[in-house]
Amino acid sequence: MQSLEERDMVSCPYNKEHVMLRRKYQQHIIKCRELHKDTVELFVCPFNKAHLIPEPEFYQHTKSCDDRKIIVQYLTSEPAELRADTRHDKIEAEENWDDDREEDYNPQVYCAQANIVREPKGMFPAQRKAFIKEERRRRGDKYDEDQTGPSKSRAEKRPTPYNSNQQRSKRPDN
To answer: Residues 78-98, buried b or exposed e (16+ Cβ, 10 A)?
Structure first.
């Protein structure tokens, strides 16, 4: 088994006895935050959301957070210089995705118009029955109002099960 190094393990800010793998930390924090919501109040570091700090230490942490240098470096760095060889002319296109005159795509409308088999999922029985009836009408299936559907025709073709009360053919005894 692979040995776990100290850098792979972290402790919970709510309960220091909780030690876990770094990859399980976020999942654990959600549970522990709910358990200790009335007793412990921790502030979230503005540079790393995984850092939860008690109020007295929060100011010092924001000054010395390891992730602060990444943000500060980004904010203080100069923007990239645009040179003539990196610039290009504006690209004109015929289609405009911001045009509000086009109707939005609605998958339900498309499926109702196309020859697609749809299933009634998450509906109440009455809704499901009406949906199935409408689908059969939409697809042009021959559906007789008297029948309950294809299950009746299959039942007629099925042989009757064995009945123990039926007389058995007797074999002649030798």
So the answer is: eeeeeeeeeeeeeeeeeeeee
